[in-house]
Write a structure and sequence with these properties.
By secondary structure, the protein is α/β, with parallel strands linked by helices. The protein has a single domain (25-337), classed as D-Maltodextrin-Binding Protein, domain 2 (3-Layer(aba) Sandwich). Helix content is 47%, strand content 16%. The protein contains 12 helices and 11 strands. It has helices spanning 2-23, 39-55, 75-81, 113-128, 174-182, 194-199, 212-215, 243-247, 251-260, 262-286, 296-319, 324-335; strands at residues 26-29, 60-63, 86-90, 137-144, 148-152, 167-170, 185-188, 205-209, 224-227, 236-242, 290-293. A 6-stranded mixed β-sheet has the order 7-6-8-5-9-11, with helices on both faces. Strand 6, helix 5 and strand 7 (185-188) form a beta-alpha-beta unit. Helix 2 (39-55) runs antiparallel to helix 9 and helix 2 (39-55) runs antiparallel to helix 10 (262-286). The model is unreliable at 1-23 (pLDDT under 50).
């Protein structure tokens, strides 16, 4: 009788010993500041959540909050202070700190979201990591949208003179600089403000990836789209984890997550953006939006006006010890292969 009780107790302890490690779990909060049907959510955040759960056998869980925790422009601060643990954040909100990934934002550098996202990730690893722009964070992926074009409700863009007088919504940073160089009037807002600004006529249109008309439900307010081969730029979203949280994970879980991040996550997110944008163009065609590709004459004007942006970026890269011309050449070899 006593042996039976002893064996039962020992068995219970054994079960607890086995179950203990399996039950240990690290929960990482990823703030969602965009619409739930936006391709960043459906094509990147959801993928990261499911893949992390899978490769760590549930030991690491990505959680989404019931409502957003911080503004889109405050994701770094939220992760740094522990309000959240993981962020997908536009690097342009931190352009005084994070300058180098803006290589992808230069005009005529984006053949597709998938290729640009992979190219800037690879360029980061080869050229930019040593600059330490993401100090304090663990960078795990990049995502660009598939290139900015001009959509507006006023007129077709045939020459650079057609930009004059247009109030165009743009992201902070390079998109604003593009419009200034072309003679437009940039109005800077976060993505979630696009519908309000376009629907109320605060702006005449937007310089953005053409996923935006569909994602932010503004197709009915647009009449013209001018597509620019290679695009007028893009915006890059960095995916990063609080460094201390990352260091708290086991080496095995870190390696497992790295195995599904980087190239793989960047490419997956890019394909989702490309697919979503193709759907956006289809909807715009159906609604009668005029979609035309920039003429050779317009392209020549654009390249001449926008050349200073490349020169400025190369100079900024040199200040951080990076050969900008070499980085651009490498990026293009990855994006346009």
């Amino acid at each position: 009788m006593k042996k039976s009780i002893l064996f039962s107790l020992l068995g219970g302890v054994a079960i607890m010993a086995v179950a203990g490690p399996a039950a240990a779990q690290t929960k990482l909060m990823l703030d969602v500041w965009i619409p739930n049907k936006h391709p960043i959510k459906t094509g990147l955040m959801d993928k990261l959540q499911s893949d992390v759960d899978s490769v760590t056998n549930g030991r690491v869980k990505i959680l989404f909050p019931a409502s957003k925790l911080s503004a889109s422009s405050k994701q770094w601060e939220a992760v740094e202070s522990g309000i959240s643990d993981v962020a997908v954040s536009y690097t342009g909100w931190y352009r005084n700190r994070i300058k180098l990934p803006a290589l992808a934002h230069l005009p005529f550098m984006v053949p597709s979201s998938e290729k640009a996202s992979m190219a800037i990730w690879r360029t980061q690893n080869k050229f930019f990591d040593k600059a330490g722009e993401f100090k304090g964070m663990k960078l795990i992926a990049f995502l660009t949208h598939n290139g900015s074009h001009i959509a507006n409700s006023k007129r077709e863009i045939k020459t650079v003179d057609d930009f004059k007088g247009l109030k165009i919504r743009a992201s902070a940073g390079e998109a604003t600089e593009v419009l200034n160089l072309l003679g437009g009037n940039p109005v800077v807002t976060s993505g979630p403000k696009i519908f309000e600004y376009v629907s109320k006529g605060v702006v005449d249109g937007l310089l953005d990836g053409m996923h935006a008309p569909r994602a932010f439900k503004i197709i009915r307010f647009l009449k013209y789209v001018t597509k620019v081969p290679g695009s007028l730029g893009t915006i890059t979203f960095a995916v990063f984890v609080n460094g201390k949280k990352w260091d708290g994970l086991s080496v095995a879980d870190q390696k497992a997550i790295e195995g599904i991040a980087g190239d793989k996550l960047s490419a997956y997110g890019g394909r989702a953006f490309d697919s979503f944008t193709n759907g956006s163009f289809a909807e715009m065609n159906k609604e009668g939006v005029s979609i035309k590709t920039a003429s050779p004459e317009l392209m020549a004007q654009l390249k001449e006006r926008l050349q200073p942006m490349r020169d400025t970026w190369v100079k900024a890269a040199a200040a951080k010890g990076v050969d900008g011309d070499a980085a651009i050449a490498y990026y293009r070899s990855q994006a346009f292969n």
